[in-house]
Design goal:
The protein is an alpha/beta fold. The protein has one domain (4-131): Sugar-phosphate isomerase, RpiB/LacA/LacB (Ribose 5-phosphate Isomerase B, Chain: A). Helix content is 45%, strand content 15%. It contains six helices and five strands, in the order E-H-E-H-E-H-E-H-E-H-H. It has helices at 14-26, 45-57, 71-77, 91-99, 115-127, 134-149; strands at residues 4-9, 30-33, 62-67, 85-87, 105-109. A five-stranded parallel beta sheet has the order 2-1-3-5-4, with helices on both faces. Helix 1 links the parallel strand 1 (4-9) and strand 2 (30-33). Helix 1 crosses helix 5 (115-127).
Length: 158
């Protein structure tokens, strides 16, 4: 089986999540569904963003999060050190997220991205062809430095 990709959603992303998990498996990834496993209109996106982000920050794979707009999941996931999440809404944004931002958590908005578009975005983001250019790596390292220098109450890593 291929690389692990953890997937989760809130109630708004629940329907799209099923398509994403199936498509990732078809592509050869080990898609791990972290929930929800049943529709609940009261699901809160931060709970699922945290579940996926803990796995990704621990170096256990990458993640895909789905909510209504993608923005809530993005905001919550980016609070976890070591997680670099981005909302993607089309193929071009997926290229930028993958090749410029080295994004390890993809966020999708089920109200704005249908299953066919999600498959295109996933294909681009998941393949990560080529290396991230030096100028982008320089910027990513600056973001990591900002993250480490501003961790309040958390042991800093050197």
């Amino acid at each position: 089986m291929g690389e692990k990709i953890y997937v989760a959603s809130d109630h708004a992303g629940f329907g799209l999540k099923k398509h994403i998990v199936a498509y990732l498996k078809k592509m050869g990834f080990e898609a791990v569904d972290l929930g929800p496993h049943a529709y609940d209109k009261d699901d809160d996106y931060p709970d699922y963003a945290l579940a996926v982000s803990k796995k990704v920050a621990g170096g256990k794979g990458r993640g895909v999060l789905i909510c209504g707009s993608g923005q809530g999941m993005d905001r919550a996931a980016n609070k976890v050190p070591g997680v670099y999440a981005s909302v993607c809404w089309d193929e071009e944004s997926a290229i930028v997220a993958s090749m410029h931002g080295d994004v390890n958590v993809l966020c999708l908005g089920a109200r704005f991205v249908d299953a066919a578009s999600a498959r295109k975005i996933l294909r681009i983001w998941s393949m990560r062809e080529g290396e991230v250019e030096a100028r982008h790596l320089r910027r990513i390292r600056k973001i990591i430095r900002i993250e480490r220098e501003n961790m309040v109450g958390v042991k800093k890593h050197k």
